Amino acid sequence: MSMRFIRTGDEPAHARTPLRMRLWLAIWGLLWTVGGAVAFVLAGRPGWAAACAAIAAITLIDLALVIRHIRQGPHYQPGRDVPPYAPVRGRRR
């Protein structure tokens, strides 16, 4: 017996991301990568320190983008009072 799941929206076209969770995960990752870079510098491992610093730079860019999206308003960070997007009508499957 196969089960079919019915979708009620157009998630692929208008998917929403939990930006606040992504913000805290990026902060957590930034703390770990900066800490790792410092630890590897103190341990005399410049290659590993450079790798951690590169990942920290990528994490910092992601953090800046998340903050930008949060500040852009409810289109990018919907609250509980913002209803989901209406499904697109007129498509054939």
Please describe what this structure looks like.
With 93 residues, the chain is mainly alpha-helical. The protein is 54% helix and 0% strand. The chain is built from 2 helices and no strands. Helix 1 (19-42) runs antiparallel to helix 2 (46-71). The longest helix has 26 residues, at 46-71. The two termini are 23 Å apart. The mean pLDDT is 80.
Rounded to the nearest angstrom, the distance between the terminal CA atoms is 23 Å
Q: Strand pairing plus helix content: what structural class?
A: mainly alpha
Can you summarize the main beta sheet?
none
Order of helices and strands: HH
Summarize this entry quickly:
With 93 residues, this protein is mainly alpha-helical.
Fold blueprint:
Layout: H1 19-42, H2 46-71
Helix pairs in contact: 1-2
Q: Can you tag this structure with a few keywords?
A:
93 residues; elongated; mainly alpha; 54% helix
